[in-house]
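An example makes the point: we print one protein in full, the chain in one-letter code, the fold tokenised, without further comment:
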Amino acid sequence: MRIRLDINNKAHVQRIKYVIGDFVMSNLAWFSYNCIRWQMGAVIGHEYLESYLKTNMVVLGQIVFPLLMMVTYAFSGYYNNVCRKSRIQELLTTAASAGINTLLIFFLALINDVIGVRGSDYEMIFILWALLFGFVYTMRAIITNIASNKIKSRKWTFPALVIGSGSAAVNFVNKLNGMRHSSGYDIKGYVNIPGENPVKGNPLPCYELDELQEVCEKEGIWELIVVPTRDDKHQAMNALNKLFVLGLPIMISPERFNMIQSQVRISDFYGEPLVNISRSSMSDSGKNIKRAIDVLISILALLVLTPLYAVVACIIKATSPGPVFYLQERIGLHNKPFNIIKFRSMVQNAEIGGKPQLSSDDDPRITPFGRFMRKYRIDELPQFWNVVKGDMAIVGPRPERKYYIDQIIKRVPAYALLHQVRPGITSMGMVKYGYAKNVDEMVERVKYDLMYLDNMSLLNDLKILIYTIKIVFTGRGM
């Protein structure tokens, strides 16, 4: 665990460097722009630059606008992964962030700046973008270049395990170690895939799949690299099944990616090319924006729906003995358990002996008012609190209990991929399939949730929300 702590500290320090660098450079860019505005005659009533820079509005802007820019940088996802950055992605992200900040500042503060010549107005906007991009990207590139050199020189390494112990796995590791510039992997050992013949005389330790979790914790493993020697889909999927639940990045060689149902996401163009099969298709910026929207909508929903909550609570207490709310443990992001909260729609102690039981349309355990709530999905409304807490999203795969997850994974190992995102109040599976009455139907519904995972986007979330609202108002919840 000491290894993981050391790398986490490096990542933390690297993130702080980027944040401080962005803030300082954003201040310099905005200060420079104010000087240029004065020089180009966009400021009226100030004969001297010094007097203009001392005005209250300029001083306030020098404080407010860099902070506003930092919000954009955070939402862009730039600070999500800080140790190994793509230079091209860094360039594009910085250019896009500069563009967004330019438009925000223009409409908030500069729209009344009139030089009198339209071409000069456009020129001022371009100058602002160029300053923001130039200053910020220069500092980012310097910090990234220093980190990149540390990785290439093997001063920074990231512990990894190779899943596979045959000739292909050994050749892969030898190729990594023989590269002139390191790609950052510090291979701690191999993990044997049943059916393969481990290469004898290997200097690195070879572990069994059952030891994987213990080894990952002991060695502080950051990534798992799947390199099977045999093209045996069944054995590979059995191995991947044990990897998904660890919540670690899973990389695989491109020629083997067709062993699982997932979109291709190339990780490294310059080192040994690998495909990340454990990450959703949504960008980091999309994830940040999605989370912010979820929290804002959920807080608003909790406030607006308070009178409805009170009415529903009174009816539940009046029509059925027992608590108003029902808490049940579900498995969420990174396989962490949490208590999902619902309005109680069944009789108290509905599960005899505590054994999980799925409900059906004519389930006698459902109360009369509970049936009404389920029809219009009213019982799910308290889950907006789960969203605010960070347990759930508004849209995402529906969370299940571990009892059922274990059964589903035996039949659909890729189900474990769903735990890389927050579960949702509603999902593609819920709007396309509905409630599942048995494990067979849960397996069928999983197909839609895996489809959602490979096509995650804010637009698709909006579509699912529209379908959900339609279901709620037409009473097709059961």
About this structure: Residues 408 and 443 are 6 Å apart (CA to CA). The two ends are 47 Å apart (CA to CA). The mean pLDDT is 85.
